[in-house]
Amino acid sequence: MSTLTSGRFVIQKHYATHLHYDFRLEMDGVLKSWAVPKGPPIEFGVKRLAVQVEDHELSYIDFEGTIPEGLYGAGKVEIWDKGTYTLKHRSRNKIEFTLHGEKLAGDYALIRFKGDKNWLLFKKKNN
Q1: Domain coverage including residue 38
Q2: How many angstroms separate the CA atoms of 110 and 93, rounded?
Q3: d(Cα 7, Cα 15) in Å, to the nearest integer?
Q4: For residues 19 and 21, what is the distance between their CA atoms, to the nearest angstrom?
Q5: What does the pLDDT look like over 53-110, one tens digit per residue?
Q6: What are the tens digits of pLDDT across the range 2-36?
Q7: Which of 58, 112, 105 lies closest to 85, judged by CA?
Q8: Could you tell me the CA-to-CA distances from 38 to 25, 53, 107, 109, 116 in Å, in that order?
Q9: pTM surpassing 0.85?
Q10: In the chain, alpha helices (H)
Q11: How many domains does the chain have?
């Protein structure tokens, strides 16, 4: 088990070609980022595909607005949830953390399951 650390997180609702949610964790001086097509799970037992995308600059954590047509990710972006998180474990294929957000709170995990980019995001059962 790694040392507990904390940072910020944001979930941005992104009205691009297809509506999805961008889940971002502040780590290693950047925002580690995943696109979650069906939105983040709010309750235990729901698993959602999270496709890892490129890291974003930390300044992007507060971004809301419209990305112009012709640019990567064109469309409206709004903050859906934000807060802090406590990292409980991190390895190449698994990240466990506790979210302290306005909408999402509790223990979550990201598990890599197929290739380098595909992960499952789910809320863990609280004991």
Answers
A1: 5-123
A2: 8
A3: 26
A4: 7
A5: 999 999 999 999 998 888 778 889 999 999 999 999 999 999 999 999 999 999 999 9
A6: 456 789 999 999 998 889 999 999 999 999 999 99
A7: 105
A8: 18, 16, 19, 16, 20
A9: yes
A10: none
A11: 1
Q: Three-state DSSP class for 100? A: strand
The residue type found at 85 is Y
Question: What is d(CA 8, CA 31) in angstroms, rounded to the nearest whole number?
Answer: 9
CA distance 118 to 52: 6
Q: Which residue do the tokens 């980022």 mark?
A: 33
The whole-angstrom separation of Cα 21 and Cα 79 is 9
* CB 28, CB 94: distance < 8 Å: no
End-to-end CA, the chain: 18
Structure tokens at 76: 């409206």
